[in-house]
Design goal:
100 residues; elongated; mainly beta; single chain; 5 strands; five-stranded antiparallel sheet
Length: 100
């Protein structure tokens, strides 16, 4: 499997986050995925594309103090032996917070 991505990030400025003065960094990504393999002896092929976004926060001393991300991928899984093509939509959201 391979994934080729283009990621753009921007530091937006200082703001309070989790009770700490933090640098807000926003990122956006686009990517393509492709590959082939076998699962239980069954050959498959995979192609698709997706987008992602994230907001991360760094304290003044460089510590990661939390963030959020979202990723959405549209995939096509092909099973050539069976003549099947299966569309797949995968969405993921993550939130990271500091515990006191």
């Amino acid at each position: 499997m391979s994934r080729r991505a283009v990621i753009r990030s921007t530091a937006l400025g200082w703001e309070p986050h989790a009770g700490v003065s933090s640098l807000r960094i926003e990122s956006a990504a686009t990517y393509d995925v492709s590959g082939a393999g076998q699962n239980n002896g069954q050959a498959f092929e995979l192609t698709g594309a997706g987008t992602g976004s994230a907001q991360s926060f760094l304290s003044e001393d460089g510590r990661y103090v939390g963030g959020e991300s979202r990723d959405s991928t549209n995939l096509t899984v092909s099973l050539p032996t069976q003549g099947l093509t299966i569309p797949v939509i995968q969405v993921m959201s993550s939130t990271v917070t500091l515990r006191p």
